[in-house]
Amino acid sequence: MEKTNYKPNLVARVLASREKPRLACLIPFHTPENMYWEAPLNGILKAEKEIADYGVTVNNFLFDQYAPDSFRKRSTEILNFQPDGVLLAPVFSIQASGFVRKLDTLEIPYVFIDSTLKNENNLSFFGQDPFRSGMLAAKLMKISLESTETTAIINIGRERENTHHIRERENGFKAYSLKNIPNMSFQVLNFPSEEINNKTNSIINIPGTEISGIFATSAAHIIADHLEHKGVKHITLIGYDLTRDNIAFLEKGIIDFLICQKPMEQAFRGIYALFHHIVFKKQIRKNNLMPLDIITSENLNDYLEFELNKEGYYE
Amino acid sequence: MEKTNYKPNLVARVLASREKPRLACLIPFHTPENMYWEAPLNGILKAEKEIADYGVTVNNFLFDQYAPDSFRKRSTEILNFQPDGVLLAPVFSIQASGFVRKLDTLEIPYVFIDSTLKNENNLSFFGQDPFRSGMLAAKLMKISLESTETTAIINIGRERENTHHIRERENGFKAYSLKNIPNMSFQVLNFPSEEINNKTNSIINIPGTEISGIFATSAAHIIADHLEHKGVKHITLIGYDLTRDNIAFLEKGIIDFLICQKPMEQAFRGIYALFHHIVFKKQIRKNNLMPLDIITSENLNDYLEFELNKEGYYE
DNA sequence: CTGAAAGCGCTTACAG
DNA sequence: CTGAAAGCGCTTACAG
To answer: What CATH number does the domain containing A238 carry?
Structure first.
């Protein structure tokens, strides 16, 4: 009888509905030393503006990315806040698991950005596949090398800092190299970030001319700074993320490639996923892998301008 | 007195307004031989769906990309249609100029995609900078080459076919090479597409082992097919666009890099620019250069999946 | 030319 | 439990 394929007008629905959905975001705050998390925050703020007319409000609960306790405190605040949806970066997997379990009970939808947890009922995930990004880095390394050469995989960071992500990048790089670059050898070097900060130039003891390529699984700018001071040229350096420091070294030609994971867009689209789900009852795609964008000095400017302005499809 | 910063609710405005804006699109139709223009059309259709609830309708006027007369006919139809906004690919610059002049008189806003015309009053442009894309191709070529080597720039296509675009790609490649790859020599080869289609394997007379890299300013799959049949390996092949043929050769490893200009997103965002301008009276950024996306076999799948699904920020 | 009323297509509180 | 009425925040045709 009701076979008429009636489609309600969503604009009218929003206006008539007295609902004012409240979203909560749980991501790390950024610091002058680590600006990475500024981008997701900007994505959130941009999305918030765009959907304000639909009655949606967004509240941010920022935690210390090195302090699991801070994460737990903020997540409790969110539960008290009783939001209609949550966007979170599940940096600390144990604490995040406990938190989303409570959200499940309360039937509050939640979206992961940056990294994900397996076997959770998240509405959606926006982020990168770290293993594949490591493979891509190895491919770029392969074409940069001339023949039989040695490269280094350098991990910089605290023990707890995004460990899984970093390891997966390394694993991807290794897997690709072993399969596709048989005549390349590599060594793995680990440096805690505290040590690096104090004595950059001495601690990274790169065996001079033997190394022709470096894959920095994080903080490429620190290695770039080291290479610049040492006056080392001709080392192919591949890293991650368009932070200000990295960009400077990319422009100077010290960093050759940066792989970008579109952190602003991850957060922007995460908010939109919640918005579309809650307000428009739309179906949401669960896994959204961001493309592995390759940035060089040639496409840097277009990329930056584009990424900063695209989100709203207008200025 | 009215210093109160009152912001009208756009959702209510749309509902109350009896306006039903009608958009017209003027782009080439695609054919089995040239599927490129399918992507922009899909972008248009996707955007159309999303904004239907706002009362906007979209009408497509497709022309033959090799026939200026076809362009002119369709543009006349659009003038009779009296749209509230126009999206067009100004493939034929003279005809397009005449058309947009009439739109100016009628005060109908219009947006360029794919390529642009200078000194026109277009609301917006979404496309790529072909010169910079050529530079990027040269950079990729540089890192792929081992030392002193010869590369070829190969242009395939009819005389009239996107000439400006193609030439600019070539010019960008040359400019970068001359400046940054002093020990590389290159030759420029031009093939009309008609000849190619008939005798692919014989006409491209690539001087065997002397060539170690090829920059295909268009139709890379034709060259890839040639290389495959000849059994030539180790030639770095760089081309454009994620067409089905190109993708197949990228996966096989015969094409090494494809530079993508996001044709679907160009059109999608073009429609959104018109929508936001007409319905929401939003300010629109005039020049929107798409990033020069570098696609390899490693990031191909993520890229495809992402691009095909991102537009609506949901599935 | 100004101002109050009707209406956009829905949802929801309320009367029956 | 059902159905008609009121109302979301605007615009616009219409009465004065």
So the answer is: 3.40.50.2300
Strand C positions within 7 A of protein Cβ atoms: 7-13
List CB contacts (< 8 A) between B298 and chain A.
Answer: 132, 135-136, 139, 176, 292
pLDDT tens sequence across B11-61? 999 999 878 999 999 999 999 878 889 999 999 999 999 899 999 999 999
**pLDDT tens-digit map of A182-210:** 888 888 888 876 565 544 444 455 555 57
**DSSP state letter for B106:** T
Residue B148's domain comprises: 130-260
B13 to chain A, closest Cα gap in Å: 10
State the pTM of this model: 0.83
Same domain, B280 and B208: no
B142 touches chain A (CB under 8 A): no
Is B136 inside a domain boundary? yes
Q: Residues B195-227, buried b or exposed e (16+ Cβ, 10 A)?
A: ebeeeeeeebebeeeebbbbbbbbbbbbbbbbb
At B123 the three-state DSSP class reads coil
How many inter-chain contacts (A to B, CB under 8 Å) are there? Answer: 130
| B5 contact residues in A (CB cutoff 8 A) | none
Interface contact A132-B294, CB threshold 8 A:
no
| Continuous segment of H or E residues that includes residue B94 | helix B93-105
| SS3 state of residue B173 | helix
Using CB atoms and an 8 Å cut-off, which of residues 209-268 of chain A contact chain B?
A: 236, 256
CB B123 within 8 A of CB B110: yes
